Every structure is written in C-alpha cells, then in structure tokens.
C-alpha cells in the first residue's frame, strides 16, 4: 500500500526546497549585480581589446604571404565571416595585406600587439577581480609578467582558431596535394571545425576565469561561466551578424565610421558576455558554498547576527 499523505508531504517539501533555492539565487544575483558594474566595465574592456586588435591584424596580414595560400580563394572564406557591407569596405585593405609583406611591419606589429594585449589583460584582471570581489595583486612586476604570458598564450590560441577557420581548407588542400593522402581530410576538417571551435573556446574561457582573477577557487568553478561564455559568444556573433546584415544597414552605409561603430558594438557585446560568465561563476560558487555577496560564509553571518542580538539584550538590561 502506498501512503498518499506521505507523497503529498514529500512533494510539498520538494516545492519548498525549490522555492528556497530560487529565493536564495535571486538574492545572490540581486546583491552581486548591485556590487559590480558590468556595463561600464565591458566598455573599458572593449576599448583595450580594440587597441590590441589592429596590431594583431597587421602581424597576421604580413605573415600570410609567406604561406602557400591562394589569396583569391581565401577572400570568400573571410567574406563568409562578416556582413557583406563590411566586407566591401575591408576588401581593399585585406588585398593590400595579403599581397604584400614586410618583416619590419611584422616586428613592430608583434611588439605593439604584445604590449597592447598585456595592457588589455591587465584591465581584464582588474575587472574580473572586481566581479569576483577579490583584491588586486600587489606585486606590479608579477602582474605584468602574468598579463604578458597570458596575453601571448591567448593570442596564439585564438589566432590559431581564427587562422584555421579562414585558411584551414587552403592548407589542407595544399597538404593533401603534396602528400597524396588516400582519405579526404577536407571533409573531416569541415565536419570537426565547429566542434573543435567550441572545445577550444571553452578551454580558453576556463583558463581566463581560472588564471586571471586573484582567487584560489578550483578549476571546476570556472567551467559554468566558460560554457555560458562559449555559447553566448557563438550565438551573439551569429545574431549580431544577422542584425547588421538585415537591420543595421544604415549605420554600416557610412563606410569606415560605420564599420568602426559596428566593431565597437560587437566587442562591447562580447566583453559583456565574458564578464557575465564570470558573474555566473561567482553565483555558482556562492550558492554551493553557502556564502553571501561579500564572499562571507553564511555561518559567520549568522554568528555575527546572533552576537549583535546578544549585545542588544545586554545593553537593554
């Protein structure tokens, strides 16, 4: 025989637990959102990313002519990654980069890219410390060295992902023609490209959330925000591309100024997704470890409240 009353009690207890969890999550989100300023910090981060973007493009553009890549076959892949109006403005610049190279431009661009990227990662570290509620590292030299190394690693990884997306099929055709491989590498690459991109982005975001902030959380607490940021990055990029293509044509029509505005908006959106991913990590950590928005354990808060009540009773008596 089944106990109908017992089932009702169990379901009621489950509803109460779900309700308590929802209330706790809402309070944590409200308090943390009031503590951080994601909107303004995203604008700051987008500025530094833009500052480091052009030197990186100079380096990549001057390296491409040294590789066995057909420029005319490369342009359609670049065109598929951006709205047509933007590509029309950038096409002459891209052709100039892809058809000529300069060792001095590579050296200057590489130095500028590393410097600006380290500045950008220093800003990212400051912003993430603010979101995580931790203090900035005091040692200036360590901060700069860590920022430099992480920036260099991120440039190599993200640059490799972008390079494979744009030039991967050309390189695979070249390798397959030279080695006369019996299997079709191009088909395998096309099938694995998106899955590989998701994995690489998740690893990159996990590394950012784990290494950049000045805290000692385990790497597991970096995964929720990394998954959120990866999905948000891919979805927002596709959605923003569609918006610019169908709804933002007027702003893009102003040529270079329109391109700059669209680029800044996209970088701002991506920066906001990155910081929101950090916000998700903070929420998960605080909820699972029972701490409040100031990273203080609930037990300590309750003890502090009880001690205050006892003091009040003593003062009244």
TrEMBL record:
Domain of life (superkingdom): Bacteria
Entry's transmembrane regions: 45-69, 89-115, 145-172, 192-212, 219-240, 252-280
Principal place of residence: membrane
Keywords tagged on the record: Cell membrane, Membrane, Transmembrane, Transmembrane helix
Localization per Swiss-Prot or TrEMBL: Cell membrane
Keyword Ligase listed: no
InterPro entries: Virul_fac_BrkB
Pfam families reported in the protein's UniProt record: Virul_fac_BrkB
Topology class, membrane: Multi-pass membrane protein
Keyword presence, Lyase: no
An annotated GO cellular component: plasma membrane
Name by which UniProt lists this protein: Ribonuclease BN
């Amino acid at each position: 025989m089944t106990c109908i009353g017992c089932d009702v009690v169990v379901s009621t207890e489950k509803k109460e637990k779900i309700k308590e969890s929802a209330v706790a999550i809402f309070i944590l989100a409200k308090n943390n959102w009031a503590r951080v300023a994601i909107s303004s910090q995203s604008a700051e981060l987008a500025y530094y990313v833009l500052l480091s973007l052009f030197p990186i493009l100079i380096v990549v553009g001057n390296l491409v002519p040294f590789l066995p890549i057909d420029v005319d076959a490369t342009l359609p892949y670049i065109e598929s990654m951006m709205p047509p109006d933007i590509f029309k403005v950038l096409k002459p610049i891209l052709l100039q980069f892809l058809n000529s190279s300069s060792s001095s431009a590579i050296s200057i661009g590489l130095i500028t890219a590393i410097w600006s990227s380290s500045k950008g990662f220093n800003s990212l570290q400051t912003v993430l410390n603010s979101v995580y509620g931790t203090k900035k590292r005091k040692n200036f030299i360590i901060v700069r060295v860590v920022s430099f190394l992480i920036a260099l690693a991120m440039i190599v990884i993200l640059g490799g992902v972008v390079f494979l997306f744009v030039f991967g099929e050309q390189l695979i055709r070249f390798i397959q023609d030279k080695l006369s491989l019996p299997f079709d590498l191009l088909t395998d690459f096309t099938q694995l490209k998106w899955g590989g991109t998701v994995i690489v982005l998740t690893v990159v975001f996990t590394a950012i959330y784990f290494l950049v902030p000045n805290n000692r959380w385990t790497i597991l607490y970096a995964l929720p925000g990394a998954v959120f940021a990866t999905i948000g990055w891919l979805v927002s990029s596709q959605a923003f591309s569609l918006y610019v293509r169908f709804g933002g044509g007027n702003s893009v029509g102003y040529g270079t100024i329109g391109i700059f505005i669209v680029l800044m908006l996209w970088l701002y959106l991506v920066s906001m997704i990155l910081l929101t991913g950090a916000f998700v990590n903070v929420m998960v950590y605080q909820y699972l470890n029972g701490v409040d928005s100031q990273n203080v354990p609930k037990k300590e808060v309750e003890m502090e409240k009880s001690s205050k009540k006892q003091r009040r009773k003593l003062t009244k008596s």
